[in-house]
Amino acid sequence: LPASDILDERDAAHLLRRAGFGAPARERARFVGRSRAEAVEELLAVKPSAARGPASSNQSSSSLRRLQVWWLRRMLSPRYRLQEKIALFWHDHFPSEAGIVGDQRALAEQNALFRYYGLGSFRTLVHQVTRDRAMLDYLDGVRSRVDAVNENYARELMELFTLGPNDEDGVPNYTQTDVVELARALTGFFFERGAKKPLVQMDPSRFDAGSKLLFASRPFEMSGVLGVEYADGTPFPPETNVLEALFAHRDSQGRPTLARFLVRKLWAWFATPEADGTLVDELSAAFVSSDYHVGTLMRELLCHDAFWAEDARASTPKTPVEFAAQALLALGVKGSFRDLPLWVARMGMEPFEPPGVEGWNHGPAWLATSRYLSRIEFGNVLGTGQVKQGFRFKLKLSEGDTPESLVDAALAQLGCEVSVETRLRLIEYLAFEFGSDTWLRRTYPRLFALLLGLPEFQVH
Amino acid sequence: MRITRRSFLKGATASAVLSGAHVLGLASRASAAAGAGAPVLVLVNLAGGNDALNTVVPLDDFGAPQRSRYEQLRPDLAVPLSALATLTIDSDPLRGTGLALHPSLGGLKPLYDQGRLALVLGAGVPGGSLSHFEAEKAWFYGRPDVLVEPLGWVGRQLDLAADGAPHAVSFGGAVSPALEAQMAEVLGVRSVAGFGVPGGAAVGAALQAILAEGRSGVAEWIARSGRVLLSQAEFLAGIATTGWGSSLEAETSGLGRDLREIASLLRHDTLDPGAASGFGFYHVRIGGYDTHSRQGTLDPSSGHPRLLSDLSRCLQGFQQDLDEIGASARVVTVVYSEFGRRAAQNAGGPDAGTDHGAGGLMLVLGDRAAGGVHGALPRLDQLDARGNLAVTTDFRSVYAALIDDFLGGDQTQVLPGAPFAKLPVIQAA
User: Is the dihedral of CA A206, A207, A209, A215 positive or negative?
Assistant: First the structure.
């Protein structure tokens, strides 16, 4: 194997940050010396899990908090990593808001879908989401029926979930007629609101059994009695499954629209904000030839040279959940994490409460003024060990420690590379009244506000 | 997921021209462009697509069969005439159709009667998209051709006088794309209350020194955001946002809280013009307007009526605060939404809602607003091929009036494709 294919400490940190939520130093060390392929394989080896967080049918914020803590704790576990990372990606991709979907059990079920199917077939996932109770409620599918077609889900399914409004040359991928035709094909799903165990069913009397014409006069036009299921409940016959039309869609250059759309989005989430055309060609070819298997695509993506390139590192602002998780794991913070949902919410990313159907707004928006401030405040809370908020953190201090040794150790723990000047500023800060009572009570704990406020710790 | 690519790219070039004083967060407030008497524009964005047709409601068939078509298209959503008796406003200026405000907007009626509320009918993006994100980009960027690299329309105005100090505040945490600028600084604020760097002076000083170091790319963009944060933290921490008698004192979240904090900043600027904030633009975004289902007609405790009732209460309270502070002469509030909604309801019974539409509604509120009804209610018997109300007023005709006649700017420097004919929604001071 070429030497560059073998992970060093920086490579291991990079992989575990991007394909997981970071890791403590000793865990990073475990990956050093392996090949990229071996390391990626270990992350992909996680078994699909149907684990579902605690939820009740009510709408209280305290029960939502329990579900959020459950999920965030799971992200922090070394056992799941990529499974929870991809679940978070799908939650951003197929959002549902607790403020709109009243029944929190539906949110927990949807979350379990992302965990179970997240690294499997995207075909299956789209189908599952289309008949998912939270999504049916959130985007009104449950209220869309033959005599009252509701366009909400059909439009977002094409615009945000599978195709995008325009292709890479600016040519519209679909028309308003297509939105209506797709909406008609997606009528008929139904569940009993308020039932003890609400079951999603296909109600033939609500289904629009008329003929539809989707993507008219394009080579991949589809017509007939399109639907997701036959009205009699026969499951998903491929010859009429309207979701297949989305997979068959080709852009104005004849390229697979859905594959390219998802590749770009996954690349932005896991690697760098922009993917060049050749890279998209390569990865979407792998996605299509694997019959849209997400795990296969992720393997290609994470093993790609462009993922490991120097300019992919420190290229992307961390999402608040990534930022908080990396800090907690790197610093070895323990506790109940009771207030963790509050903190990531202040930073702009509350799980189960995305800002809208487009998911979270990524990029520099994560570091807008108030949100940046919340990251610094979070560092202060961790450093000062706010047990009541659910964070237990022990400051390391032993005989012979100096400001230099403490700053270097903390930077190494965080896996954060800084300039010579920044390091000196941190040492200077920590050297003031070094070892005094005030130093121990105030100065040293607040070093972590500074560290978590470093521009270098905001990106990965 | 949206990534604002331009923001990534701008960091390096922008930082190169910032003055040393600004890099240290020391930009002087006294040099601020927006002095105590300067105009202040407050933008309120109703996200999701406000149902214009149930906000300003047709009362009769004068000039066109508006009322009868309205009742046919919306058997479960049409606001009954009996609920509108006390809410009549001026008639449609083009056809003379009688009009009324939705009953939940009762709080705005006195402002309308005082001539301080302008209603722009049929406002929208010509040839606009039915996608939330395409449509709102047009409003944010001030241009319908949204494939180009974006700059907010307010951002372009800010860039003309960029001096290193922030003159715009975006509530909701992140910065609205409408305010996105090439050079100018914009604050993204969740809440003014509680703003302040933790850990005391030593942490602040160390952070300031670290953020002032030279960087490039994303890290520089982030450091720049940090420098703006430090430069404003002390100032914002000193603003009293409660306890001064605001009509919105009881509002603890959402639009009411944001407007109270804006009023608090304007109060500070009025009381202490020498240390004024320098903020001339505010942006507030409030969601929930995507009423595809269970939209409701009259019950102010749910659906669209509740949204309108919140809007009315908050705008009324805000205007009252401005009057009491003595700032109403210089503040104009503009309410906008990415599109109106489909003319026909999409279901019967309590599920009834409306899908994405076209022609919408803008509100312009304040002493400088030319109160009354502007534009024309799109004809309900002449819907477009998608069943939508036509756009009868190009949204840029309102932006142009705001820029030229209120902000004292030049629309040709701000709006691509300008000049646009101005809709007279602003009156002389």
Answer: positive
Distance CA B233, CA A163 (A): 43
Going by C-alpha positions, the residue among A128, A184, A135 that lies closest to residue A156 is A135
Residue pair B26/A294 in contact by the 8 Å Cβ criterion: no
Q: Please give the Cα distance from B54 to A152 (Å, whole number).
A: 20
Closest CA to B386 of A107, A124, A339, A183: A183
According to DSSP, the β-strands at B56-58 and B99-101 are antiparallel
Residue B175 C-alpha, separation from nearest chain A C-alpha, in angstroms = 7
Cis before A219? omega within 30: no
pLDDT tens column, A149-168: 999 999 999 999 999 999 99
Instruction: Mention every residue, 6+ apart, whose C-beta is less than 8 A from residue B193.
Output: B241, B242, B261
Q: Which of A33, A32, A13 is nearest to A23 (CA)?
A: A13
Find chain B residues with C-beta within 8 A of A160's C-beta: 133
Q: What is the DSSP string of A367-398?
A: GSHHHHHHHHHHHHHHHTT-GGGT-B------
Distance between CA atoms of residues A112 and A122, nearest Å:
15
Task: Show the tokens assigned to B221.
Answer: 């963009």
The set of residues, in sequence order, having a beta carbon less than 8 Å from that of A23 and lying 6+ positions away, is A13, A16, A78, A329, A330
Position B46, amino acid: L
- The dihedral region occupied by B36, where left means phi > 0, alpha psi between -120 and 50, and beta the remainder, is alpha
**B28-79 pLDDT tens trace:** 443 444 456 799 999 999 999 999 999 999 999 999 999 999 999 999 999 9
Q: Give the closest-approach CA distance of B59 to chain A in angstroms.
A: 26
CA–CA separation, A405 and A401 (whole Å):
6
Element (H, E) at B237: helix B217-237
Q: Looking at the complex, does the CB of residue A172 fall below 8 Å from at least one CB of chain B? A: no
Direct distance between the N- and C-terminal alpha carbons of chain B, in angstroms, rounded to an integer = 43
Do the beta carbons of residue A378 and residue B199 sit within 8 Å?
Answer: no
B212 CB near a chain A CB, below 8 Å? no
Angle at A340 between CA A336 and CA A342, to 5 degrees: 135
Angstrom distances, CA of residue B356 to CA of A24, A179, B337, B352: 48, 11, 12, 14
Helix (H) or strand (E) holding B304: helix B303-325
- Scanning B387-416 for CB atoms below 8 A from A yields none
CA A11 to chain CA centroid, nearest Å: 21
**Nearest alpha carbon to residue B155 among B188, B119, B193:** B188
Q: Are the CB atoms for B428 and B160 separated by under 8 Å? A: no
Q: Check: CB of residue B77 under 8 Å from CB of residue B369.
A: no
Select the residue of A143, A359, A450 nearest B207 (Cβ to Cβ).
Answer: A450
Report the greatest alpha carbon distance in chain B: 71
Contact call for B1 and A148, based on CB within 8 A: no
Q: What is the mean pLDDT of chain A?
A: 94
pLDDT digits (tens, 9 = 90+) for B352-366: 999 999 999 999 999
Question: Measured between alpha carbons, how far is B96 from B89 in angstroms, rounded to an integer?
Answer: 11
Q: Are A64 and A56 in contact (CB under 8 A)?
A: no
Which residue of B129, B202, B287 is in closest CB contact with A356? B287
Phi, psi (rounded to 5 degrees) for B120: -105, 110
Q: Which residue type occupies A300?
A: E
- pLDDT tens for each residue of B256-301: 999 999 999 999 999 999 999 999 999 999 999 999 999 999 999 9
d(CA A142, CA A153) in angstroms, rounded, equals 10
> Dihedral through CA A67, CA A69, CA A75, CA A77, nearest 10?
-120
